Amino acid sequence: MTGYAPVNGLQMYYEIHGSGGTPLLLLHGGLFNIDLQFGALLPGLAANRQVIAADFQGHGRTNDIDRPLTVADLASDVVGLLKHLDVPRADVFGFSVGGAVALHLAIRHPELVRKAVLSSVSFHPRGDRSENTDAVGEMSVDMIAGTPMEQDYLAKSPHPERLQALLDKLGAFDPGFAGWSDDEIRAIAAPTLITVGDCDAVKLDHAVEFLRLRGGDVNGDFAGVPASQLAVFPGTTHFNGLGHTDVVRDVVLTYLDAPMPE
Q1: The pLDDT of residue 175
Q2: Residue 119 in contact with residue 242, Cβ under 8 Å?
Q3: Can you tell me whether residue 30 is helix, strand or coil?
Q4: Tell me, what's the pLDDT at 130?
Q5: Rounded Cα distance, 187 and 175, in Å
Q6: Between helices 163-171 and 130-137, what is the axis angle to 10°?
Q7: What is the β-pairing status of strands 24-27 and 10-17?
Q8: What is the pLDDT of residue 137?
Q9: Around 121, how many Cα atoms within 13 Å sit in the side-chain half-sphere?
């Protein structure tokens, strides 16, 4: 099933796959879309549960509007989408920009999130490698010519002539955001799976710091296995962060299918 949800001036494109269980919401990264980010994962994820996937503002089949790209606005769009679909609570799996939106939802809208899978995202700018931030700020259409991102944008966007405008918005993404505090991360109610590539744009020590704030990095044989966990995918960059489909699917489903902690 596919459709468009009218939220915040957008016609937000979404897809629904599978049925049963707690709904799983998929949120893609910047310059990606449902197909590019989750296409290979979708059949496995939707085998035994309902999966809802959405294209963000200016991405995939969702139109752009006169609004910069910020995590708060994208999260507001997602809240509107869930309301439109009458979904009161979901598991949320977000990558990069989508991970930042999922984190925002877990902190600001805890009633909506049962479990969160936060992939290749920092909770504070100190966790990001500077060269990645600099490169995003300089992106141009010529730099991505011939890539799947360019081809998918031109094929699916309601306004294919605005690719450079999208790149400019991504280059200025969420200006002034100072990050979440340690106390805000500690206070997240939803059990959290953090995933990162071993050569990602997010620093490995930051992912471990994230885990510790969520109650992890303990001796599980004595203290028990924490509700929040960390997976480091080998041979994995930011660009191909979900590229090892079988590994990612098994890790994510194992985490989501585990009983909720008491």
Answers
A1: 82
A2: yes
A3: coil
A4: 83
A5: 25
A6: 150
A7: unpaired
A8: 64
A9: 27
Question: Residues 242, 245, 250, 252: is their CA dihedral positive or negative?
Answer: positive
- Which residue has tokens 């990095």? 217
Q: Which amino acid is at 74?
A: L
pLDDT at position 176, please? Answer: 79
Angle of helix 97-108 versus helix 71-84 axis, rounded to 10: 70
pTM: 0.97
End-to-end CA distance of the chain: 35
Supply φ then ψ for residue 122, to 5 degrees.
Answer: -95, 160
Strands of the chain, DSSP E: 2-7, 10-17, 24-27, 51-54, 90-95, 113-119, 192-197, 229-233
Strand partners for 248:
none
Sign of CA dihedral 27, 133, 110, 63: negative
Place of tokens 């959290």: 192
Sign of the dihedral through C-alpha 192, 193, 196, 198: positive
